[in-house]
Amino acid sequence: MKEAQNYRNHVRWFPPFHFVLAPLMAANLIFWAVRLYKEPSWDHAALLILGVSLILLMLIARLFALKNQDRVIRLEESIRYSRLLPEELVIRAAELDLQMVIALRFASDEELPSLLERTLSGELKTQKDIKLAVTDWRADHHRV
Q1: Helix (H/G/I), strand (E/B), else coil: 66
Q2: What pLDDT, on a 0 to 100 scale, did the predictor assign at position 100?
Q3: What's the whole-model pTM score?
Q4: 124: which of 53, 54, 83, 119 fits an S-S bond (Cβ 3.0–4.6 Å)?
Q5: According to the model, what pLDDT value does residue 1 have?
């Protein structure tokens, strides 16, 4: 059974990306930068440029995945809001920025209305504020 999720342990690390690919890309970039510095040549410059390009490719691919995940979260939460909240609160929820919606997804169905109202009133201003206010955590073990 998975450990109960909460604010302290909700950050998700994807080991192949964070602990294998990213360090290998960084080591490759450093290696070719040092080689170019010690032995300047067009070949070393080209390999350094390739290293930079691979890091950019890795970061852009990660960004695309995260943006897609944000869109799915926004859709899921809008469906959840329409199912759980009174119509006037659903309409007001459109005022939330995406980061607030993402933070509110951790609130249980029971505490969502009160946290949403507190967020809309300005009492909870940041993602961190919202997540810290959640007492009955709704875990998300599927994000990457």
Answers
A1: helix
A2: 96
A3: 0.80
A4: 119
A5: 53
Rg (CA), the chain: 21
Domain spans in the chain, listed from the N-terminal domain onward: 14-68, 85-137
| Residue in 84, 87, 82, 80 with CA at minimum distance from that of residue 102 | 80
**Average pLDDT score over residue span 77-101:** 95
Beta-carbon neighbour count of residue 107 at 10 Å? 23
Nearest in space to 76 (alpha carbons), one of 105, 106, 115, 116 = 105
Farthest-apart Cα atoms in the chain, separation: 68
Which residues does residue 137 pair with via DSSP β-bridges, in sequence order?
107
Find all residues with CB under 8 Å of 7, minimum gap 6, and list them.
131, 132, 134, 137
Please, what is the angle between helix 112-120 and helix 42-84, to 10°?
110
Q: How many degrees, rounded to 5, is the angle at CA 129 between CA 88 and CA 59?
A: 100
Amino acid symbol at 23: P
CA distances from residue 71 to 40, 76, 85 in whole angstroms, order as listed: 46, 9, 20
Q: Mean pLDDT throughout 14-31?
A: 95
Residue that is written with structure tokens 């809309």 in the block: 120
Over residues 36-54, the pLDDT tens digits come to 999 999 999 999 999 999 9
